[in-house]
Write a structure and sequence with these properties.
- The complex is a heterotrimer of chains A (559), B (275) and C (321).
- In chain A, helix 8 (246-280) packs parallel to helix 10 (316-344).
- Chain A is mostly helical and 559 residues long.
- Chain A has helices at residues 25-29, 34-62, 73-108, 117-139, 153-156, 161-188, 201-233, 246-280, 287-300, 316-344, 353-376, 378-384, 388-418, 424-442, 445-450, 462-496; strands at residues 538-541, 546-549.
- Chain A has 16 helices and 2 strands.
- The longest helix of chain A has 36 residues, at 73-108.
- Chain B has 275 residues and is mainly alpha-helical.
- Chain B has a domain at 69-168 and 199-275: Cytochrome c oxidase, subunit III, four-helix bundle (Four Helix Bundle (Hemerythrin (Met), subunit A)), CATH 1.20.120.
- Chain B is 69% helix and 0% strand.
- Chain B has 10 helices and no strands.
- Chain B has helices at residues 7-14, 30-65, 67-73, 79-105, 108-139, 152-155, 163-172, 186-191, 205-239, 248-273.
- The longest helix of chain B is centred in the N-terminal third of the chain and has 36 residues, at 30-65.
- Residues 1-16 and 151-197 of chain B have low confidence and may be disordered.
- Chain C is of the alpha+beta class.
- Chain C folds into 2 domains: 5-52 and 102-219, Cupredoxins -  blue copper proteins (Immunoglobulin-like, Sandwich); 225-319, Cytochrome Bc1 Complex, Chain D, domain 2 (Orthogonal Bundle).
- Chain C has 7 helices and 12 strands.
- In chain C, the strands form 3 sheets. Chain C has a 5-stranded mixed sheet with strand order 3-2-1-5-8, with no helix packed on it. A 5-stranded mixed sheet of chain C has the order 4-10-9-6-7.
- In chain C, strand 2 and strand 3 form a beta hairpin.
- The relative contact order of chain C is 0.12.
- Classes of the chains: A mainly alpha (559), B mainly alpha (275), C alpha+beta (321).
Chain lengths: 559, 275, 321
């Protein structure tokens, strides 16, 4: 990695960047610098993602044929459980907030760090500690309860449920720490002049996400704790064989895990709001509506958990209320899509790689969101619940939505993080391959599920379902190649990429005022606050590729 | 129109080296740091309340499903010891609040004394809790499979009949059990009349002790964590770290301690007093 | 006697055959949501494509001025989707109410789910592992589970309901098409979740294949068949076949081939002869003596199986030398 002493943005002082300012593994593992913690998170969650991806590949290869190919039923159950658990707890929930958010959030605020740097490091360490438990699960015979740990199966399963639940419990605390940190940072560290409604939308998204992390995760914590208690003592809280109520577990679990879906998607929407605006060089359309809709989604997200349980025998009144509230979440989501579209109207649209991801996100999230309507509708959900239709739906939201937005954000902030530009061509091709592979893998699952293929099946009825499964497997392999391409392109850029200017995309938020990569304390002088979505005063210097503000650019008023 | 070149951070740059050692480099001044810490602590307390709310929720569900278990089992709890413990915890909360006042006024001796008293109160609470727990262990009043009552007053009925067997019966004699409806828990069907506290032991009394140990156990864990933090504060107070413009840790820990106290004030009547 | 009808009815791109009265209504609502979704998807993607092409960045000049908000437009694109989803909610809810509210008169069948098979109990006490129902009659199923949560799912009926231990759940349907349809377990329940598949056989109203005829014939098997054949039927209908093979392969439970009379080692180290008493005990108290190398996962049949059936089963096991 380079020691780019970029003086493009900040004048004469020469100070080593955050990557070069100190050396040795201790300077990383015990750093309090939010940027280094963000980078460590990035490496850790990427490794988890590839582990989870290997499990997914195993699932798809096994399902290429209906019979036993290379894993037996138990092996298959472990594959989908570990795929789900690793992807949800280790990758997608910490993904955008802890990796990208950690790096970007203080920079966007013009601050030197998050409010509680030690707690930030503790969050990372807790993540590692939780991950150790997951590795222990792998080593001690796996886990076969499904990532949802439904009781009473999880009480009597013979696999390492306690280790996995403990791991998830610890990861929950990691997530809470990040949430508390972000809320306090956004409340207390905003620079003079950045009022709530002058915050970049990414910060709004992070704020809404942090609220969910703080309010929902403790409930998961206590649920898992009670599950472990139940397994150890047979206390009879969730296990009907001891007089407990297994449905209560589902209520507790989804009270966390549905809001957790918004922990995944709100940061994704926040990134896309930034990308669409910057790459259209247009102020975001309906700023306040997007900001409000983030908070609305965060709050409504707490009231819809029962829609996972329409077939559990819950009362008709409960079903009606949960269905209605579920539909109410669809409206703010729809508004965001229309706002992004309107932002592009009469814009100056660049199809740089981050924008490709943003467009892919809109395509995929639209499908994911619209298919949610089928599942929110009570009578159709009875048929579609727990089939591949649901599998396809949430993969369109979580992978098509969150993963693609994460990759978009990663490509957008990569030059800032590492000071290098990647190959546009390679990145764009990888993006398209992954996009095509994803659709081939998951679209066939919609008709497959509607035809009645239940999820979590190792074996299936050949004549009805084989062609869909084979298509899905081919798509998964293609998606894998796309992801591999992304890794190669990004890693190559570290070695041989061009040096990145401070502001390669023409972004107006404050992180682009810092050098690429930033110095240890982020800024030599706290930069003035500008309107985060005003692009007309930014001009590109063809020689360096850097966008800088023209003299006319006046910072916003603080009143 | 004021230009928003923020003045404070620039001064901040200038006095980078002059920062008092207790202020982290990214805060503007002591007050900024204190306010941030306080907000963080409040948010953490919100997560704590939600953490316990899961168990209160489970308590409410089982109490409404099996009121007979709760009224029967509560007689095994010693409300005298519980009451003493409540007083002990409230007193330690008082000394915790006092310690904040001492820290604000820079009274180092008072601070050390009140912190020590808080720790003593906390240990007192745990000691009484230990006495209670050991009685329960001795009598076999334990959760789940460890529930094994030996005392004569409750042994006449013995353990609950297996629920599994009852379901099997119900399933085969399906003739008119449809009336039971989707929500009728099987246990309710053969639990019969709700037993009075002195009557025969209802089924699944162990559920009560499951909830009792889960709630008081997690609460006790919070007390132990509190003791750890208070010992650390005592150490720092003796070292003379705290001063009127830097007493955040004392203040935040006291907030946490009040919450632990408050949760006990809910637990005590719910578990010990309501029959 | 088993019907040998083929899988009935033709499916569409989206759905299997509509074999129950409510299926068409569910499908119609699905198609309504589908058309709305396709319309909005195409609309948004078309506009998006036009914008990307039309406003593609050509040089670094600033974009044209355009409004940063437009109240009328924002109200329009909030109100129209709201109206559509309100309708979706209403239609889905009313249909759900009728799905969840059985008519006054139904033919009630008891369903017991266990790892990993289904038992269906008819009003006369007869038990099968395949669900038999009459066509054009309201059938309700009263369900409970012996162990973990399962879910009763018949795609052709568009019906699904979880089967929960410790409580009863209920579903109903009115089959409209004679034939055989798949019945799945839709809630993950452990190792052989994906083999917890059986069939629903919908019988015609009249004739030799009618439901009445079938039930009369099938209930009588103990007296009609030889003990070995009757035992084989018990073996199948009680779901033994899900875990215990008769060809020597080992499943979730040990095979029954060639084990009669042999000495068997238990998980606790003791040795037991595989005889009449051991078989009887294992059916009624399956967790008492578990063969070494197997998990104690078998549910008890105490109170659910007749002595005659156990006797027939013993005759069948003896025959598997």
């Amino acid at each position: 990695m380079s020691t780019t002493q970029t003086s493009v943005a900040v004048g004469a002082e020469v100070e080593p960047d955050y990557l070069a300012c100190s050396k040795g593994w201790k300077s990383w593992l015990f750093t309090l610098d939010h940027k280094r913690i963000g980078v460590m998170y990035l490496i850790a969650i990427s490794a988890s993602f590839f582990l989870g991806g290997l499990f997914a590949l195993g699932i798809r290869l096994e399902l290429f044929h209906p019979g036993e190919d290379f894993v037996d039923a138990d092996g298959y159950n472990q594959l989908f459980t570990l795929h789900g658990a690793v992807m949800v707890f280790l990758f997608i929930i910490p993904g955008i907030p802890a990796a990208l958010g950690n790096f970007v959030l203080p920079l966007m605020l013009g601050a030197k760090d998050v409010a509680f740097p030690r707690m930030n490091l503790a969050s990372f360490w807790l993540w590692m500690f939780g991950a150790v438990f997951f590795v222990a699960v792998l080593a001690s015979g796996g886990l076969d309860t499904g990532w949802t740990f439904y009781t009473p199966y999880s009480v009597e399963a013979q696999t390492a449920v306690i280790a996995a639940a403990t791991g998830a419990f610890i990861l929950g605390f990691s997530s809470i720490f990040t949430g508390i940190n972000f809320i306090v940072t956004i409340h207390k560290m905003r620079p003079v002049g950045m009022t709530w409604f002058r915050m970049p939308l990414f910060l709004w998204g992070m704020y809404a996400t942090a609220i969910i992390q703080v309010l929902a995760t403790p409930v998961l914590g206590i649920t898992l704790l009670l599950l472990v208690f139940e397994r150890l003592t047979g206390a009879g809280i969730f296990d009907p064989n001891n007089g407990g109520d297994p449905i209560l577990y589902q209520h507790f679990f989804w009270f966390y895990s549905h809001p957790a879906v918004y922990i995944m998607i709100l940061p994704a929407m926040a990134i896309v709001s930034e990308l669409v605006s910057v790459f259209s060089r247009k102020p975001i359309f309906g700023y306040k509506m997007i900001a409000y809709s983030s908070v609305a989604i965060a709050l409504l997200g707490f009231l819809v958990w029962g829609h996972h349980m329409f077939t559990s025998g819950e009362s008709k009144v409960a079903a009606a209320i949960f269905s209605a509230l579920t539909f109410s979440v669809s409206i703010p989501s729809a508004i965001k899509v229309f706002n992004w579209l309107a932002t592009m109207y009469k814009g100056s649209i660049s199809l740089a790689t981050p924008m490709l991801y943003a467009l892919a996100f809109i395509f995929l999230f639209l499908i994911g969101g619209l298919t949610g309507l089928f599942l929110g509708t009570l009578s159709t959900d009875v048929h579609l619940h727990d089939t591949y239709f649901v599998v396809a739906h949430f993969h369109y939201v979580m992978v098509g939505g969150t993963l693609f937005a994460f990759l978009g954000g990663l490509h957008y902030w990569w030059p800032k993080m590492f000071g290098r530009m990647y190959s546009e061509k390679g990145a764009a091709i990888s993006c398209l391959v992954a996009f095509a592979g994803f659709n081939i893998a998951f679209f066939p699952m919609f008709p497959l599920g509607a035809k009645g293929m239940p999820r979590r099946y190792w074996y299936y009825l050949e004549q009805d379902f084989i062609s869909y499964h084979q298509l899905a497997t081919v798509g998964t392999v293609l998606l894998g190649f796309g992801l591999l391409g992304i890794v190669i392109v990004l890693l190559r850029s570290l070695k041989s990429g061009e040096k990145a200017p401070a502001n390669p995309w023409g972004g107006a938020t404050m992180e682009w005022d810092a050098a690429s990569p930033p110095i240890h304390h982020n800024f030599h002088h706290t930069p003035p606050v500008h309107d985060p979505y005003r692009f007309d005063d930014l001009r590109r210097d063809p020689a360096t590729g850097n966008y800088s503000r023209t003299d006319a650019a006046e910072p916003v008023s603080s009143h | 129109m004021t230009i928003a070149e923020p003045s404070t951070p620039v001064q901040h740059e200038a006095e980078h080296g002059d920062h008092p050692p207790f202020i982290a480099h990214h805060f503007e001044d002591a007050n900024h740091q204190f306010e941030s810490g306080k907000l963080g602590m409040w948010i953490f307390l919100v997560t704590e309340i939600l953490f316990f709310s899961g168990m209160f929720c489970a308590y409410a569900v089982y109490r409404s499903m099996h009121p007979e278990i709760f009224s029967y089992a509560a007689q095994f709890l010693d409300s005298k010891l519980g009451g003493i413990n409540t007083v002990v915890l409230i007193c330690s909360s008082l000394t915790a609040a006092w310690s904040v006042r001492c820290a604000q006024l820079g009274q180092r001796k008072g601070l050390i004394l009140t912190l020590a008293l808080t720790i003593i109160g906390a240990f007192g609470f745990l000691g009484i809790k230990y006495v209670e727990y050991s009685h329960k262990f001795h009598d076999g009043l334990l959760p789940g499979k460890y529930y094994q009552v030996q005392s004569e007053s409750v042994a006449d009925v013995g353990l609950a009949p297996s629920v599994t067997g009852a379901e099997g019966d119900a399933a085969t004699t399906e003739a008119d059990s449809g009336a039971a409806g989707a929500h009728a828990a099987v246990e309710d069907e053969h639990a019969g009349s709700h037993a009075p506290a002195e009557g025969p032991e209802p089924d699944n009394v162990k559920i009560f002790f499951g909830i009792y140990f889960a709630m008081t156990g997690v609460h006790g864990l919070h007390v132990i964590i509190g003791i750890g933090v208070y010992i650390w504060l005592l150490f720092r107070a003796i070292r003379g770290d705290f001063r009127p413009d830097y007493y955040g840790p004392v203040d935040f820990t006291a907030l946490y301690w009040h919450l632990v106290d408050l949760i006990w004030i809910f637990l005590f009547p719910l578990l010990y007093l309501i029959h | 006697m088993m019907l040998t009808l083929a899988q009935a009815g033709e499916g569409t791109f989206w759905f299997p055959a509509q074999a129950a009265e409510d299926a068409a209504k569910v499908d119609d609502l699905f198609y309504f949501v589908l058309y709305v979704s396709v319309f909005f998807f195409l609309l948004i993607m078309t506009i998006l494509s036009i914008f990307v092409i039309r406003y593609r960045r050509r040089d670094d000049s600033a974009p044209q001025k355009s409004p940063s908000h437009n109240t009328v437009l924002e109200i329009v694109w909030s109100v129209i989707p709201t109206a559509l989803v309100v309708y979706m909610f209403y239609a889905g809810f009313t249909e759900y109410l009728s799905k969840r509210q059985p008519p006054a008169e139904t033919y009630e069948i008891g369903v017991t789910a266990q790892k990993w098979s289904w038992n269906f109990t008819y009003p006369n006490g007869h038990v099968t592992d395949v669900l038999h129902v009459p066509v054009d009659e309201n059938v309700s199923v009263l369900m409970t589970s012996e162990d973990v949560i399962h879910s009763f799912f018949v795609p052709a009926f568009r019906e699904k309901m979880d089967v929960v231990p410790g409580r009863y759940t209920k579903a109903w349907f009115k089959p409209t098409m004679v034939g055989e349809f798949d019945l799945f377990c839709a809630e993950y329940c452990g190792t052989s979740h994906s083999e917890m598949i059986t069939k629903v056989v919908v019988h015609p109203q009249d004739g030799p294949d009618s439901f009445e005829e079938w039930l009369r014939e099938d209930s009588d098997f103990l007296s009609k068949l030889s003990p070995v054949d009757a035992g084989k039927k018990v073996y199948q209908m009680r779901g033994c076949a899900q875990c215990h093979s008769t060809d020597g392969t080992s499943g979730n439970g040990p095979t029954f081939k060639g084990v009669w009379g042999t000495e068997r080692r238990m998980a606790d180290g003791s040795a037991v002869t595989f005889d009449e008493n051991y078989v009887r005990e294992s059916i009624l108290q399956p967790k008492a003596k578990v063969l070494v190398g197997y998990e104690p996962v078998m549910p008890t049949f105490q109170g659910r199986i007749k002595d005659d059936e156990i006797t027939a089963l013993i005759a069948f096991l003896k025959s598997l030398q």
